[in-house]
């Protein structure tokens, strides 16, 4: 761990100003950052503790939605009565991730910025274009079982490892961002994370001096909400494939199908064409296959992770079948 | 005064059964449990020692080659940095279990990625860790190091080879035969407490608090490594946060701490990071195993073939003893057993819980399941038909043998359906549900051990030995043995372990600790009983001791006349070790569900029935079995070391990415202990137990996966990707 200066931000303004420092990083729960600092993957010269900057509240929004403060812990979010009743896919996704102890520390904003679990990213003595631009990708031709099959590039095949953001993507939530100059902006979760392209070090759209203040959920929608996470052990394991699904049935026909996918890409994967295909159609195995065809038409395996392509197809079948059954 | 017992004959006197205190076998909670759960039991790194500085190992970033230069100046100016130790005596691998001499040294020669090459010492741990990562090292790499077991011509371990009769002929004549190849991936011990040591040097004596399993061997290994007479060294390991084989031999941090403390003349603490524990201690070798089984119409084996390929670094003597129980588990006249080792440049392979059977038994018992299916015989019945009367290779009698009882009692308690078996008979929603079973077997080991027991006039006793308690219950069972023999409540027996100043024993490993050190305590107590009997004028066998009283009216204080009375017991296995085949046996039964869509497998319930001699404490013994079965679940479903194909480094080197089972993976487990007395195992009639619970259990799960969903896998662990690849439509 590299020695660092520690600053505590007491207001949002403080936080944005301090985080704008070239060598500064914000720390909230620290459940990811501290590990990476011990491994010297992250080496901030200055650590800005934003835990007391005051945006941990979970509040009703005027439009009937919900505003989850960036510093609300994963546990607080998952047990919140409105989350449980109106956005159960979010509670289920959070509870499918990490462990109770980690969820007690992890925050909404921090979890959105969680970094990949790629073995080569986490080992500074191995090549990684994300960590050290130009050094190469260790995972391509390396141990790549956990890696992406959608939206990869020759520079990087890492996945976004989280669960919460997959549910937020299905819910079409919005990330609220404040900047050091006082400006505020909103970015849909579906656009918040980036694909690796030739800038794999850029994982999301946050700019220097910007801080996530909240995530806002739109007014609740009708339908069944499911989160399915396929993993090697039944808890405390990252997803091989995960699916957040919101499915509404009306008169034997799928009226709504919002689906997002984890474990497949550098970001929670969302493809509007899948909703377009499913909505208005009667459920059938052929329909699910067609949805999987759309999802996976550009999928590419890297040897060890080839299995994710059929696994995603089969899991999509299972999730849609369950959602339709539960919704009927 | 030392009393020596060399056991040449089975001991059928069962003396512990005739004592009056009635504490042996009782399910007493671990005496140190409260201290552990309240954080007051100090582990190796937790001793507060004034002026202690912190060392962190720097590790190699090449696979094979020479170090041309370590640029100490690259870090000596960093904050807090005190020294860079690159002494040629630094060790680069952990010692193998019972090595008794220094492991590989010469840190300037790199043999695997992640090998320790130097120690950076600083005022704080964080400073040392930062500097260790910044240490500039100039290498001359040697390219082309073989990294995969199939990249080299393997060496045959000739003393493992058995050729009896004609296996090929037996296979061709067999009514039913199986010829299958299993693979297993490497395992890590993944003990909770990382490897750690604090060394103090007073100019003459070296004292090291370390996390070790076998102090009597470790002291020789350390002394040899640093060229110090053993008398100048004291090792202390009072509490050990799990070992599972990874702390059998002295490892790199302990030697480095000792060298640094002597050079700097300050106490030095060295704690490995979790990644270092994974990358530079010990791995269980991956294996490839060909099983050939030939059977007659009735399923009786006529031919038995088990050939295994394992790997290790050049120069290591250890080869995962995959065939250990295959030599005697099932009878068959025509046999071929062979073990080969591939010399490759992954980290050191060594003992991880139940070396050998942990991976050999799941392969053998998986093949037996295939045979049962082909022969149309119930899997339990197939095993019952193949239990040999004596060791089929050496003709030796078994010391005791409870496989048949375990199979029968286990099947009954589990509710095993012995009717015809077909896969895919039961489905609940997305999940196929099935059952499977397997035999358990693990060789029994016992070693020479000494212990001193002192009876005190206040009615208490003190037991002293360098034996360790690695979480198994040693403190408790030694108090029970002494309490039973001397007529004392175990609460009045203080057990002092883990200090090389005490009489020595073989330590914890190979499941031999309880019977070895327990026998030494037994011998000491028996000698004390003889002295007491003498003083009150009866023969020892007629001496009743209970609740601190000597029957006939004497109080212990009167008989001791105010003076403590001490005896040192020295137990040595003699001819019994050569005259019998001794092993623990058992049976596993599992119900497993497999998701048709995702290939995820989850254990619904699992039962193990085991016979391992006398049960010294039903609670700690059961806990050992539960731990073993939990390891079986990990070996079956989740645990796998993954190595980079280009430089051989271990990639999944933390507890998030190396998947030991979590609570949710472990359902209610049932343990049946088939109590027995094994007279040739030890004078306390106890056998090893810690490892038996994982010797075959993975096959019960794998066989249940097949029975559930029809996917017959030959590769452990059976992760969702592998299950899906074999899943019928």
Automatic annotation (TrEMBL), chain A:
<dbReference type="InterPro" id="IPR051312">
    <property type="entry name" value="Diverse_Substr_Oxidored"/>
</dbReference>
<keyword id="KW-0560">Oxidoreductase</keyword>
<dbReference type="InterPro" id="IPR036683">
    <property type="entry name" value="CO_DH_flav_C_dom_sf"/>
</dbReference>
<dbReference type="GO" id="GO:0071949">
    <property type="term" value="F:FAD binding"/>
</dbReference>
<protein>
    <submittedName>
        <fullName>Xanthine dehydrogenase YagS FAD-binding subunit</fullName>
        <ecNumber>1.17.1.4</ecNumber>
    </submittedName>
</protein>
<feature type="domain" description="FAD-binding PCMH-type">
    <location>
        <begin position="1"/>
        <end position="222"/>
    </location>
</feature>
<dbReference type="InterPro" id="IPR016169">
    <property type="entry name" value="FAD-bd_PCMH_sub2"/>
</dbReference>
<keyword id="KW-0285">Flavoprotein</keyword>
<keyword id="KW-0274">FAD</keyword>
<dbReference type="Pfam" id="PF03450">
    <property type="entry name" value="CO_deh_flav_C"/>
</dbReference>
<dbReference type="InterPro" id="IPR016166">
    <property type="entry name" value="FAD-bd_PCMH"/>
</dbReference>
<dbReference type="GO" id="GO:0004854">
    <property type="term" value="F:xanthine dehydrogenase activity"/>
</dbReference>
<dbReference type="InterPro" id="IPR036318">
    <property type="entry name" value="FAD-bd_PCMH-like_sf"/>
</dbReference>
<dbReference type="InterPro" id="IPR002346">
    <property type="entry name" value="Mopterin_DH_FAD-bd"/>
</dbReference>
<dbReference type="Pfam" id="PF00941">
    <property type="entry name" value="FAD_binding_5"/>
</dbReference>
<dbReference type="InterPro" id="IPR016167">
    <property type="entry name" value="FAD-bd_PCMH_sub1"/>
</dbReference>
<dbReference type="InterPro" id="IPR005107">
    <property type="entry name" value="CO_DH_flav_C"/>
</dbReference>
Automatic annotation (TrEMBL), chain B:
<dbReference type="Pfam" id="PF20256">
    <property type="entry name" value="MoCoBD_2"/>
</dbReference>
<dbReference type="InterPro" id="IPR046867">
    <property type="entry name" value="AldOxase/xan_DH_MoCoBD2"/>
</dbReference>
<dbReference type="Pfam" id="PF02738">
    <property type="entry name" value="MoCoBD_1"/>
</dbReference>
<dbReference type="InterPro" id="IPR000674">
    <property type="entry name" value="Ald_Oxase/Xan_DH_a/b"/>
</dbReference>
<protein>
    <submittedName>
        <fullName>Molybdopterin-dependent oxidoreductase</fullName>
        <ecNumber>1.17.1.4</ecNumber>
    </submittedName>
</protein>
<dbReference type="InterPro" id="IPR016208">
    <property type="entry name" value="Ald_Oxase/xanthine_DH-like"/>
</dbReference>
<dbReference type="GO" id="GO:0005506">
    <property type="term" value="F:iron ion binding"/>
</dbReference>
<feature type="domain" description="Aldehyde oxidase/xanthine dehydrogenase a/b hammerhead">
    <location>
        <begin position="38"/>
        <end position="143"/>
    </location>
</feature>
<dbReference type="Pfam" id="PF01315">
    <property type="entry name" value="Ald_Xan_dh_C"/>
</dbReference>
<feature type="region of interest" description="Disordered">
    <location>
        <begin position="1"/>
        <end position="20"/>
    </location>
</feature>
<feature type="compositionally biased region" description="Basic and acidic residues">
    <location>
        <begin position="1"/>
        <end position="18"/>
    </location>
</feature>
<dbReference type="InterPro" id="IPR008274">
    <property type="entry name" value="AldOxase/xan_DH_MoCoBD1"/>
</dbReference>
<dbReference type="InterPro" id="IPR036856">
    <property type="entry name" value="Ald_Oxase/Xan_DH_a/b_sf"/>
</dbReference>
<keyword id="KW-0560">Oxidoreductase</keyword>
<dbReference type="InterPro" id="IPR037165">
    <property type="entry name" value="AldOxase/xan_DH_Mopterin-bd_sf"/>
</dbReference>
<dbReference type="GO" id="GO:0004854">
    <property type="term" value="F:xanthine dehydrogenase activity"/>
</dbReference>
